[in-house]
């Protein structure tokens, strides 16, 4: 019966990927466009696995110092990354990653005595009883060990070890309770301090994991909506202000974004023309910069309108946003497909692109949200919060909305829609800039804008 799941897995995998136990990594879309992934696969025989990665992955996932303590709420962050790589091998990715002892100290502390008890000779009644759980512990451990030869380090893979930690941790809790229960074994001097220490480790485990989850989901994860990042930065700043802790040292300002930033850095363009957050990530052919937009205005390529679209004949293409010149046009267009559907696309640098068709209700008023920001290579079109187009944009910063000012061929002269401008507010940026001005005024009589 133990063989059946393996056989079923191999059969399904072969049907899907023409391989019993692997996947065609070189066939993934990311592998087709990213030169770093291509180089990694070329050096590693087309796979993401290799025994040579074990020293690096084992060290990272088991190191005791894989957290950073900061002065910004929630005061616990991921460690600096990428971490140490043994042997000089190329990894597919070394993402921000904590470790089992650092982020899960409660479970780790319970697992250590459990493992020791499981490998000791069964000379007592308690140790003999543990023989019943050796098989599930070994099975869970085997599952956890599969992450070690994987040449891709990420915090989410710590979850692969969690079944092992929970089962072993339960055993460790049982052993401790057996020592604590006076009816079983007299309580030795170290038991009560151990229980108190576990309570502290439990509280810290909750705090650390809640902190890392909040930071990743609201600031560092790819494609976090801008309003989510803005709300999170506002929360951080408000909590710090309430506690009397200065967090403005991470805020820079100027007319141009730096080439890169440290994880958690903020940067203000102009007088709050835009606010950006750095995730500290390394860049590649898909991720062009480690700066992510938090708040933008028209000066940084963000436009908002109430738009009421007019029906046009099937095949009609209309300009949504344009830049460049007649010799080198960049055009975001909308094409009417008939049957109350349209499709959005882009012709220009760095590449032409077309999205999936979307339903549209002519005569209805939508919120049309447009972004064309070459600072972070971002081009986005939303209708009422629905993403209808997204690609890279690296062209000029002078943008026209709704008018084919570059005379792009195949695109009409104007967008068939009534456009009513909406504000692009920057409340978080305004608050940060005001606090910076107050701080600098108090210190030297100068303000960032002066």
Write a concise synopsis of the structure shown.
This protein is 35% helix and 21% strand. It is an alpha+beta fold and 450 residues long. The protein has three domains: 179 residues, no CATH class; 87 residues, no CATH class; 126 residues, Jelly Rolls.
Topology record:
Blueprint: H1 3-17, H2 29-33, H3 35-43, H4 54-62, E1 68-69, E2 76-77, E3 93-94, H5 100-103, H6 105-119, H7 125-129, H8 134-145, E4 152-153, H9 162-180, H10 191-220, H11 226-242, E5 251-254, E6 266-269, E7 274-278, E8 291-296, E9 302-309, E10 317-324, E11 329-338, E12 341-347, E13 353-354, E14 358-359, E15 365-373, E16 378-383, E17 386-391, E18 400-401, E19 417-422, H12 427-444
Outline the structure in words:
By secondary structure, this protein is an alpha+beta fold. It folds into 3 domains: 179 residues, no CATH class; 87 residues, no CATH class; 126 residues, Sandwich (Jelly Rolls), CATH 2.60.120. It has 12 helices and 19 strands. Strands 10, 11, 12, 13, 14 and 18 form a 6-stranded antiparallel sheet that branches. A 5-stranded antiparallel sheet has the order 17-16-15-9-19, with no helix packed on it. Strand 16 and strand 17 form a beta hairpin. The longest helix has 30 residues. It is globular, with a radius of gyration of 28 Å. The termini are far apart. The C terminus is likely disordered.
